[in-house]
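User:
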Amino acid sequence: MKKIIKIGTRESQLASWQAMQVKNLLREKDVTSELVYIKSEGDIDTITPLYEIGVQGIFTKSLDAALLNGRIDIAVHSMKDVPTQLAKGIKQAAVLERASYKDIFVFKGERSEVTNELGFVNGQWSIVNHEDSPLSIQQSSFTIATSSIRRKAQWLNRYQNHTVENLRGNVNTRLRKVNEAGWNGAIFAAAGLERIGLRPENSIDLDWMLPAPAQGAIMIVCREEDNFSFDASKSLDHTPTSLCTKIERDFLRTLLGGCSTPISALAKPENNRIIFKGNIFSPDGKEKIEIEKTSYIPDSYELGVSAANELIKNEQAQKIIYRIRNEKK
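Assistant: Predicted structure:
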């Protein structure tokens, strides 16, 4: 009898889409599979800000348990939600080709209603800086929403006078809350909205905002001893994405290790090189340290670790890391 791989997924529309993508790709490899829906702790508590919950793997723990007890054979995750240290007995099987890594800002209402808060730069609408206009968004009473401490810190670093509110729930819920609440808009990952066709027209790319490590990538994990599921999933692995996300996650792990931290990283292949950018912010956004490094692809395997270690030597970075660790206690 042909083995059927049981694919574990969360119940949200986005998570289901990602799992179905894996199912379809496996079918192309002549591998039969079926979806098994698992509710995660992160889906149950949709009120507490993620940075206050302070638990790594809040969206992956239930799937880890189902994997280890044999209820499912593989689990499909948004890779940015996966702890840099996988649970004992679980291993990475594949990383799919990355979609957009960018963050986007979704405005409440029509964009025309807030054009006085925007500037048209290089063919794109973008939020203007205080120096650019006496009526700029920097001076206005602007309120945005996000559950990400990383996005919050980067936004407040750029717009110190703004208010940032908590926004939890799946992407459908968060889009609805943007329309219902008294905010000016909210930050989303482009990949999540674009995958399920929900990116609003009244949204802009935040090209200045560095993404979460592995943002836009989908990860497949399996039990360490399950060679059949590993081999089947490994055939879906996209080598450039796998390398770049490894570099980004190495940077995160070497600095602090958790995914709910104001740390960003992006590695991009370009002309046989990897261009890496990383940063770390204080939670209030007032302090930041950035780093950029380039390496030939064959020499880039430890690029994330070396970038983090170089940054750690910076005295200001040490103070930020110390502050983050203390705030998490």
